[in-house]
Write a structure and sequence with these properties.
Rossmann fold; single chain; 30% helix; six-stranded mixed beta sheet; 300 residues; 12 strands; globular; alpha/beta
Length: 300
Amino acid sequence: MLRFKSGIAQNRNGNGIANQVTDHLVMLHDVVKEYNTPAGKFRALDGIDLTVDSGEFMAVIGKSGSGKSTLTNMITGIDRPSSGEVIVAGTAVHKMNEGQTAVWRGRNVGVVFQFFQLLPTLTVIENVMLPMDFGGLYSDRERRERALHLLELVEMESQAYKMPTEISGGQQQRVAIARSLANDPPIIVADEPTGNLDSKTADAVFGLFEELVAGGKTIVMVTHDDDLASRATRAVTIADGRIASDERRRELAAKAVAISANGIGHRDGAHGKRLNGTGYPWRSGLLPANETDNLILETA
């Protein structure tokens, strides 16, 4: 079966910033983030040291105002550290300007928001195609084909030509997940992705994340839901801008590896539709030639 290599090819940076050598997909070193407020400086992050490896499913938990979202904003480049280093997929994110960061993020990070952030004037399939348009990846025909594959993965292909207002909140979040996969990023960062959903729909969305991890993706997810957090392979608790605990759940990690080895995604069912004979759209042959060096072929 196909798996992703650790890291990412240099030609995906697209920002002129030299790649940094690291054994981790994500590395934060002594990251501090301060905001100026009328009451003085507020330190949202206080000397964070954190690494995330390829294939991890990491839940970030903590009380409101603890620094969870600020931490994930460092990883996505949505916000910049006041000091410290942020290296993601071999790129020093903290050294980039705003324009460079936007190009890099579009190619290397998939972002899923609590409130979906679908453009209301575009159809479902157009929303999924949008990151490909911005990134200049794939031909027009390939973009549409790839978007349909991604919508099939999340069981939304039948709604492809509807407007976001015509589908439910749970369906909109599925579309948002498909959009986050548009450019085949190595890491998905989700900020409270189930916070606006009922428990049944939240469980289904979480199941999609579990299968993406089994297929080789890395997910960092902010959540207030302790039950869902307990199903991740790693849980990092943030308190007062610092890492209060970092728990790796080896038995769940082993289960994820076993699921992947047994070929999850090769079945028909709730989350396993066949796509070109594979379970995942990034294995559908739609990657451009210069992206195939991110893949290796394994035989079981």
